[in-house]
Design a protein that fits this description.
The complex is a heterodimer. Chain A contains 4 helices and 3 strands. Chain A is α+β, with helices and mostly antiparallel strands. Chain A has a single domain, classed as Orthogonal Bundle (Arc Repressor Mutant, subunit A). In chain A, a hairpin with a 5-residue loop joins strand 2 and strand 3 (74-80). In chain A, helix 1 (3-22) packs across helix 2 (27-37), helix 1 crosses helix 3 (46-58) and helix 1 (3-22) packs across helix 4. The longest helix of chain A has 27 residues, at 82-108. The longest helix of chain B has 40 residues, at 488-527. The radius of gyration of chain B is 38 Å and the shape is elongated. By secondary structure, chain B is an alpha+beta fold. In chain B, the strands form 4 sheets. In chain B, strands 16, 17, 18, 19, 20, 21, 22 and 23 form an 8-stranded mixed beta sheet that branches. In chain B, strands 5, 6, 7, 8, 9, 10 and 11 form a 7-stranded mixed beta sheet that branches. In chain B, strands 1, 2, 3, 4, 12 and 13 form a 6-stranded antiparallel beta sheet that branches. Chain B has 4 domains: 2-59, no CATH class; 65-111 and 348-356 and 369-485, no CATH class; 118-346, no CATH class; 537-757, no CATH class. The chains are: A alpha+beta, B alpha+beta. The A-B interface holds A 26-28, 31-32, 45-47, 50-51, 54-55, 57-58, 71, 73-76 and B 10-11, 13-15, 17-18, 20-22, 24-25, 43-46, 49-50, 53-54, 57-58.
Chain lengths: 109, 894
């Protein structure tokens, strides 16, 4: 796994997981949710988040639609597709492997 | 582009929403609004960068950037129109030449006949192993035996050779020309050819000799001659002495089985001359057919060979003039069953080699044009090296730059290919007319087919890659740091450009050498002494209908016509003979000189009237001509021989007064007996009264053949040789009047010129010399442009260096010398490579050359000198330009 791949993959896993657990969300909500859930340990850069969203949308892992939020603002919300659910399983497995590997190294070293 | 705008709006709104929400969240925590908004925006970062990424992943990126590439390409064309015009023209011309030649090659060699299951069609030929010439002619007795032997393996039938000839669309009406072919009636069912009107011939029409006077018209001819009139059914036409009834029109697209000819009229083989069906010696048609699916060509050949061998043995036994050598030669000839999916074709045999060669030459020109354009583009690209480097350092992907440059090339390549292909539609028939002879017109079907389509596609892609890829690869590979350093970036393109020029010079040298070789061959052929004066010599064939045989053999017909024509103003001399020379007609026989061994080889026999030699302007070397009185007598045992005859048979002895007999010719009282009987009678000796100079009989290539001239017998038709003061055009009406005045039934059948007949035997050579020369000049021109462009470019990029050198005291001469040195280095290398390629190539084409060796020094040295001359011219301007560099101006920018 190359560096950018692993980070990219991590962001993908996070976004997909959040979408799977919390249903259709818009970009801001995704970013804040990840930050809250990680107790501010992870900070999502918008410069990475949106390109990742667009890429996953283009790959049909997620789909987007415009809705009006409770504070009367139009927002583009994303939800998981079947293809995305499959990808999530794959990526989660891959991520688990990767992080387990990193952990082992950290413990031994 | 609507999609892009919509996307832009959407993304902007989405991101703005995000920023707003974060700002509100911050405000909720007590941050003042203005600070909150600024913080939110700052945190979000560069929205337009994200948008770009959004475009990249959400719009089909190819489509988007191709549009962009095209716009760049368009701008680039506008910036340097000259470059594009030159490139476009040279590519268009060469593509047109290649496509036109390929369409001929395709029609000639590859295209299958448009008939049912062409792959199982076969034709039978007779070949001596190891020889390229072969014969397809067979006699009916042979055919019948072969057909019997092929039973259960193949269906055979007979087919005459399509003959472009005189005929009449109204019996007794005016003479017209059409291509007529005798075929077995079974031909049409076998080939699956159906009628569009009436019926086609069938097996019924093979039944009784002379009893099926029916004609089927070709679709094209029906359209062309009769305007597609459905009323032609039942119309009578006349071919030879026979009146045929039109019974139908064959379906569109069927032109016969001879590539190069389009048959206008088919008539049943059973209507052919009766004697042809019984004579062993009447070789007037070929055997064609269809093998059964499970029988291979080899099996069939093996099955038919014994029958053929037995037939040959039979003939040897019966040949009265048989000698061991002749028997051996006959035995060495083997039968061969040839696949005939694309028909059989004398044209193919004659022009396969030259057309392939010319195609090769044209392909070379195309390569040169590509190298040329590649060189031009390279120069242009390196002028843009800094732009490219700048874009690379700003993050443009290499593949992106590569694609942009390739789009430019593709635009040019495809435009040139399309224009070239369109142009070839005009060019191809023009080329076909170059190989078409008066007596054997060539007509080829050259419609678009998948091979043509594939070729066109291949050419357009091929040239695009050829001239586009190298410059694109080169300039997109320049590293930014390199390009920013003035000057160094140029070195690589210059080297590659030099390589292109070397390739161009090498290929162009090959072209010039080939063109020169064929040009010289052609000149050598033209310089051959014909032995007669071909200019201002009209050939008029007069004919009497065969039902007036008595008149035609009477004394009061041909000589009076001759004298009447002599009286026409502008006519200097008139004589007649059975047929003209250079008309592919010859009667040959072995000859016996009294008291000597019979000749092994055949001698040409030509019956002529008195005055023949003076009309032809052939020198009389010894003895005398025939007199009018001698020719007028029904039979007279005299002859005249030529120099080749005397030299062959008589060493130094004077031929005049000796007696010679034509093998198989009997005394007049035995003339009506069959050939085999006559041949056993004592020879009929003729006294040699004169010796004349040699003439070429049918070809400029072969050595003059021995000829024996005999007084013209009486027959129904003669060709009159009319020596005129000028070209003799416009005499037609007077010739007709003369004929009518002598006898009302006497008809002017054909009028042509001797020089046209001679020209028609040089078609191959003229084609090669003409196209070879044209391509040679084109190659030379392209190479000169390439050379000029490279040198100008190199001088332009080295302006500063030259300025420095001049400032340090280099003279103008030194600078010019420097430019020329690099010029001659390039040209020299190219010439060396070209020389290495040209001579082996010419050796393979040796049989097409004449009067010279493949490695003729004149060709090598001539081509090299020509090149150096052109190189000098191409190099002079850039060199002078370099010499005029003003050091102070050049160095100002340093």
């Amino acid at each position: 796994m190359r560096k950018s791949d692993s980070l990219q993959s991590a962001l993908n896993v996070l976004v997909l997981t959040v979408l799977e657990k919390r249903g259709p969300l818009h970009g801001y909500a995704i970013a804040t949710l990840i930050e809250d859930l990680s107790e501010e340990a992870l900070r999502v850069e918008e410069g990475s988040l949106y390109p990742a969203l667009y890429r996953m949308e283009h790959s049909d892992w997620i789909r987007a639609s415009w809705v009006t939020t409770e504070n009367k603002r139009r927002a583009r919300v994303y939800e998981l597709t079947t293809e995305g659910t499959k990808q999530l399983a794959d990526e989660t497995g891959r991520w688990a492997n990767f992080s387990a590997g990193v952990n082992r190294v950290l413990q031994i070293a | 582009m609507m999609a892009r705008q919509r996307l832009h709006r959407e993304m902007t709104e989405e991101m703005q929403g995000h920023i707003d929400e974060r700002a509100e969240a911050l405000m909720a925590k007590g941050v003042p609004e203005e600070a909150a908004r600024r913080q939110a925006a700052l945190r979000f970062g560069n929205t337009s960068a994200i948008r770009e990424e959004g475009f990249a992943s959400r719009i089909s990126p190819w489509l988007e950037s191709i549009w962009q590439d095209l716009r760049y390409a368009g701008r680039s064309v506008l910036k340097s129109p000259g470059l594009y015009v030159v490139s476009f023209l040279s590519l268009t011309l060469t593509v047109a030449a290649n496509t036109a030649l390929f369409s001929i090659l395709n029609a000639l060699l590859f295209r299958p006949l448009p008939v049912k299951d062409p792959e199982t069609l076969i034709s039978i030929s007779y070949r001596i192993p190891g020889e390229t010439r072969y014969s397809e002619s067979a006699s009916v007795p042979l055919y019948e035996q072969l057909r019997e032997a092929a039973k259960g393996k193949a269906e055979l039938l007979i087919m005459g050779f399509p003959n472009t000839t005189e005929m009449r669309t109204t019996p007794g009406g005016p003479i017209e020309h059409a291509t007529v072919q005798h075929v077995s009636g079974a031909t049409f069912p076998m080939l699956g050819v159906t009628p569009v009107l009436g019926r086609v011939l069938n097996e019924e029409d093979d039944q009784t000799l002379g009893a099926h006077p029916y004609a089927v018209l070709g679709y094209d001819y029906w359209q062309r001659r009769f305007g597609g009139d459905r009323g032609v059914l039942g119309r009578k036409i006349q071919y030879g002495e026979t009146v045929y009834e039109i019974i139908g029109v064959a379906r569109k697209g069927f032109f016969g089985t001879d590539v190069g000819k389009i048959v206008d009229i088919w008539v049943p083989a059973s209507m052919y001359d009766r004697t042809a069906f019984t004579s062993l010696n009447y070789y007037w048609f070929r055997v064609f057919g269809r093998r059964h699916q499970d029988v291979s060509v080899e099996t069939l050949t093996a099955a038919l060979q014994p029958t053929y061998s037995a037939f040959v043995e039979e003939r040897i036994k019966e040949d009265p003039g048989s000698t061991p050598q002749r028997a051996e030669q006959s035995r060495s000839r083997k039968l061969s069953v040839d696949p005939a999916a694309s028909g059989s074709s004398g044209l193919r045999r004659q022009f396969r080699e030259p057309v392939l060669l010319v195609c090769g030459v044209a392909a070379l020109v195309l390569l040169i044009a590509c190298a040329n354009v590649a060189g031009l583009f390279l120069a242009k690209a390196s002028r843009r090296a800094r732009e490219m480097a700048m874009r690379t350092s700003l993050g443009a992907a290499r593949i992106r730059l590569l694609r942009q440059m390739l789009t430019e090339s593709a635009l040019l390549g495809i435009a040139a290919a399309c224009a070239g292909i369109l142009l070839s539609i005009v060019l191809a028939p023009l080329l076909v007319s170059m190989i078409s002879a008066e007596r054997v017109p060539v007509r080829l079907v050259m419609d678009m087919d998948w091979r043509m389509a594939l070729f066109c596609l291949g050419v357009s892609l091929g040239i695009t890659l050829l001239f586009g890829l190298v410059p694109a690869l080169q300039s997109s590979s320049i590293s930014p740091a390199q390009a920013m350093k003035e000057g160094t970036a140029i070195a690589a393109p210059l080297l590659t450009g030099g390589g292109f020029v070397v390739i161009q010079v090498a290929l162009a040298f090959v072209l010039v050498a080939v063109g020169l070789a064929f040009g010289l061959s052609f000149r050598n052929l033209l310089r051959q002494d014909l032995g007669f004066d071909q200019n201002n010599l009209l050939l008029a064939q007069f004919k009497m209908p065969s039902d007036s045989k008595e008149q035609s053999t009477s004394v009061s017909l041909w000589q009076p016509l001759r004298h009447r024509i002599e009286g026409i103003p502008g006519v200097e001399g008139v004589a007649y003979s059975n047929w003209p020379v250079f008309a592919s007609i010859s009667r040959t026989s072995r000859v016996v000189l009294l008291g000597k061994e019979p000749s092994q080889e055949n001698v040409v026999i030509l019956p002529v009237s008195d005055g023949y030699f003076s009309a032809m302007r052939t020198r009389l070397l010894a003895g005398r001509d025939f007199t009018e009185a001698e020719v007028n007598r029904a039979t007279i045992p005299l002859c005249i021989v030529n120099e080749a005859f005397a030299r062959r048979f008589l060493d130094t002895e004077n031929a005049v007064g000796l007696r010679a007999a034509i093998f198989g010719e009997a005394s007049p009282e035995n003339e009506d007996r069959p050939y085999l009987e006559r041949a056993k009678l004592p020879p009929y000796y003729r006294e040699i009264v004169g010796v004349v100079g040699n003439v070429r009989y049918g070809s400029m290539r072969e050595e003059p053949r021995p000829i024996i001239y005999i007084p013209a017998p009486r027959r129904e038709e003669y060709t009159f040789l009319i020596r005129t003061k000028g070209t003799g055009t416009g005499l037609t009406a007077q010739l007709r009047e003369s004929a009518a005045a002598v006898h009302p039934a006497l008809e002017l059948f054909r009028l042509e010129t001797q020089s046209r007949l001679v020209d028609d035997t040089l078609i191959r050579e003229r084609l090669l010399a003409g196209l070879g020369g044209a391509f040679g000049v084109l190659g030379l021109l392209l190479a000169a442009i390439g050379l000029y462009a490279l040198l100008s470019f190199s001088v332009a990029t080295r302006t500063k260096e030259i300025g420095v050198r001049m400032a340090l005291g280099a003279t103008q001469g030194l600078i010019i010398g420097g430019v020329w040195r690099s010029l001659f280095l390039l040209v020299g290398t190219g010439l060396l490579l070209g020389g290495l390629a040209a001579f082996p190539l010419l050796r393979t084409a040796e049989s097409l050359l004449f009067g010279m060796e493949p490695a003729d020094p004149v060709v090598g040295v001539g081509a090299a000198l020509l090149f150096l001359g052109v190189a000098l011219i191409a190099g002079t301007l850039p060199a002078l330009h370099a010499a005029r560099v003003n050091p102070t101006v050049a160095l100002r920018y340093e």
